[in-house]
Design brief:
Blueprint: H1 5-23, H2 26-43, H3 48-75, H4 84-87, E1 91-99, E2 102-107, E3 110-116, E4 128-135, E5 138-141
Parallel strand pairs: 3-5
Antiparallel strand pairs: 1-2, 1-4, 2-3, 4-5
Length: 142
């Protein structure tokens, strides 16, 4: 039984696809794409040297072009703040007078105890304040 070269290249592509799935390393996918391109070259009648050259050129080109783009996109992902970090910097409405010793605000739909950042400052009900920190269960506002 004589198997054509393009079939071997497709078997190689599948073989490279398995570690891609198991390790989530995209480089294996790029090598698999190179193997598919070599299979097409073999199916069109290209010689062994042409097949290997197509495999190498396509694989290297994909790695050289796709990896830097993927790295840029990975580094630009927005950082999602959660928990207390998500509350810092938000605006709140004063419900009960807030001063250095305490008070109440409405923050993110919930009532919070609050105190001013500046011990001498105060805010009256209805005023808008900014949360600068969360100290335990108390919002520090200004």
């Amino acid at each position: 039984m004589d198997i054509d070269a393009w079939v071997w290249w497709l078997i190689g592509a599948v073989g490279l696809g398995i570690p891609l799935v198991l390790t989530a390393m995209p480089e294996f996918g790029m090598f698999a794409a190179g193997a598919v391109a070599a299979a097409v070259t073999a199916a069109l009648g290209g010689g062994a040297v042409a097949q290997v050259l197509v495999f190498v050129v396509v694989s290297v080109a994909l790695i050289a072009v796709v990896r830097p783009i993927a790295n840029r996109h990975r580094d630009q992902r927005p950082q999602h703040r959660s928990g207390i970090e998500a509350l810092k910097g938000r605006s709140a409405v004063v419900l009960e007078r807030v001063d250095g010793s305490g008070g109440r605000i409405k923050l993110a739909g919930e009532v919070w105890s609050a105190r001013t950042l500046d011990a001498d400052g105060s805010f009256e009900p209805g005023q808008s304040v900014d949360v600068v920190d969360i100290d335990g269960a108390t919002a520090v506002v200004m």
